[in-house]
Prior knowledge:
Blueprint: H1 4-26, H2 32-37, H3 45-76, H4 90-99, H5 106-136, H6 140-159, H7 162-203
Amino acid sequence: xxDPQGVSGGIIGVMIIGFxxxxxxxxxxxxxxAIAHSTARTKEPVSxxxxxxxxxxxxxxxxxxxxxxxxxxxxxxxxxxxxxxxxMAGIELTSLAFASTFSWSPIPLSIAAMLFAYxxxxxxxxxxxxxxxxxxxxxxWADIGFKLFFLxxxxxxxxxxxxxxxxxxxxxxxxxxxxxxxGLYLLAPLIKSELKSYEAKYLHHHPERGR
Length: 211
């Protein structure tokens, strides 16, 4: 376990799992958030980019880290990860971890999970609809057809086992990320010039803002 090959292999494995779960959580690098941010009314796209940077930080670094610490310090530290509970995952695992300290916590947690799931369904239906109508044209039947197609997969996804659904999601997310990451590299010079222009316009004229 402590030889160089074992350590390096373990670090790489943890990074891969971490990347998969981070992307699943905040969608960073997929290009999906850009669809929502493109609808914002702003004179400076760079400022909207700064707003977008806050999302993965709050979602993953703050919320997910706090949730992980709760699970580690309750579910695993108290030995609940053995026996009948060893195969628990997802919201079931989180709910049990919180309930071990606050018996009433599964109720607000369940409400938050439902709201999160509902908002995710609405958001991704909008993303998919915009992408689909961009390809086939923005007309009524394309709108209705995609919504029916999307709702059928919502029902199908609810019936699939969580682990299988996550594996499918990881595979599809990887496919989506490839063209977006290529686009990011190709547009990097443009982003750099926009950032320099923004800094010259605001930060250099108002040095106290950059502190």
